[in-house]
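DATA SHEET
Item: assembly model
Revision: 1
Owner: S.N.
Input lines:
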Amino acid sequence: MIEVKSLTYRYPEGREAAINGLNLSVQEGDFLIIRGLSGSGKTTLLRSVNGIVPHFYGGHISGDVTVDGLSTRYDVERIRKTVGLLFQDPENQIVMSSVKQEIAFAMENLNFGRSEILRRIEYWADALGISHLLERRTTEISGGEKQRVLLASILAPGPKYVLLDEPASQLDNTIADDLMRLLRGLNKEGVTLLLSTHGKEKGSREFCMEHGAESDCACMNYIFKKREAIPLYTVDNSPLLEISGFSASYNNTVNTVGGDSPVINNINISLRAGEVIGLTGINGSGKSTLLKGIMGLPRVKTEGVVKVNTGNEMKVMNELSPASRARYIAYLGQYPGVYLFHDTLEEEITFSLRNFKENDADRRTLEILDRLFLTKYRYTNPRDLSTGEKERAALASVLVSGQRLILLDEPTRGMDPAKRLALVNYLSGELREGKGAIVASHDTELLRLLSANIYELRNGELICRGRYNG
Amino acid sequence: MLPIYRDTGSRIHSLHPYVITAFVLSVFSASLVTANIWYMCLLLMVTVIVAAFAKILRNWASVMRFALYLSLSILIIDLIILPKNTWWNIYGISIPVEPVMASIPLILRLLVSIGSFLILSLVVNPDEILNATSGSKVMLAVAMGSRLYPLIAEDEAEIEDIMRVRGVEMDAGGRIEKIRNRGLLLLPLLTGSLERGLSVAESMESRSFSGRKGVVPAFHRPLFRFEKLLLAFQTIALFLMLSWIFIAPWTFPLLLADFPDIGLSPAALISILLYLSVIAGGER
């Protein structure tokens, strides 16, 4: 049994408590779903059950967390034998370079015997459907496969309790569904699960959090409830983007991570002002490659013609460098945090303005900050912003030239429904003014809210799927 | 192409990491103590042959190209600082003898050193070193470094793309401008790497790394009898090379010699053959 009693915790650099007088009791065999907005304390709660908080992070703690009667303050090594913790991003958790070694890692640390380690690796690889990966290197497998390898590493020592921090947020829907099926099976076998999520996963009971404390799940469900999609804007019929005979593949001489190169074969796209195209497809289907190809980024080899409406003409982009294309196309990749490296948000914007040789930097900075609801963060260090704010700040850093075409790659990774709604509202305003967007995403709810015209990338071909109806 | 381990299926790849490590350390030590041009040429040839047998020649050569550029700086410095009393006249071009002769052994030493350590990084699976050393924490750090290295390279490419979409012409302008633009990548790269390091450390901690004591690696790889023989050959090769210094020191000019001798003893030649024994490889 896990018991959290009056837990209050503040990170060393934190101004406010991440957990605030929290009480929670989890019985053996429970499948607890932990819901809450970003920054509500879900991750910190899971860290405190495994003893990562406070032993790894330091900080100030009061109250107590016990697992089967053992306190995380004094018995952390014994607790970790029974509590496994899986984080959000598989890439940032893998320690070893081979799959077998990765699965063995926790067992070796816990001094399991050699034959026992080998037996358990075989058992869990078989149970999680990753036997075929055992001889592979961890750098050569996909994100979904990495997540399953890590799950095997955590389950192999036989923990009674498994904590999962948004484990499906980086996975496509099919793999995420497989993972949930697997977790339900484990729960039936007696493993107690605590899963934090922004999704709609269901367990045996729910626990909701807000500002580091328990909150009313009815209130949370209101935030999570289904919203109306934005209306379709028909500004004019002139195309914003025309792509014809477009093929793209990853340039593997530069790309060293990942397996087979995704390839796009001879596709055509036309996007009109006020329209959103939603790109879907499994991990590795080529969604990101298509967006990068449109931007002309050098790691993607392309063929075919890309034309963008510059206001005066349909300009052929093929001969332009990515930096020149960026004057007409705003592109935001999967990791917005990487876009931000200056000391203040204002400096971020002026850096881009300077590169685009735009005049009147002050006015334009204020304008773009205002449009993205970021004015109050003008002098804030962008790395201190929350996930949703970082996404908007990164968007501001690429949208400075007033581009009419916006390309977004997985813009809601790690975003809660409230922040997703804020992004939809922002994009809705842009679409109304005659801009257009291509959004590559696994987030079907985002694409539904945007009334996006859905195209699925499968085996290099683009298949039109229409719009989501509900 | 990154100089990281990749199993090409060669017999050299299947050797115990101790054998390759002994080979590299032995060749490296030999290159350090000798200034004999011919001997160092032979050492360089040994590394080329081993790289070819390990089927890593292309990747090896791509890094060695940069080593070659680096070695040019040695020649330039010697040309600037060393006296020029004697001159060669080749097709009407006067070449100062002293700086050229002094820089040749240094350049060869640099190439042999980089070439041999490249073999270590391209042929030896870091996980196997970890297993061979009973899961020591130092070797774990090495193994992790090799895993994170390609990720950092991927980050660098990603940040470069981001700079482009923020209007930076990464490939335009003169050399100075290109270098300045590359400099823009450093800060985000460093910050990203630090954040990833913290996440990996947290993941390790959550899997009881801090309690890691007396670990028995699950995939311990024993040293086979044939590999023990190869290990002995590498040690003998180094011993023979060192004995050459004492037996015939006049044929073995040391580091500061003005004009390296070109003589080679049978012991030196035998040592070269012993170094080459690793091409026999292990079991596949």
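QC remark: Chain B has two domains: 12-125+223-280, 136-211.
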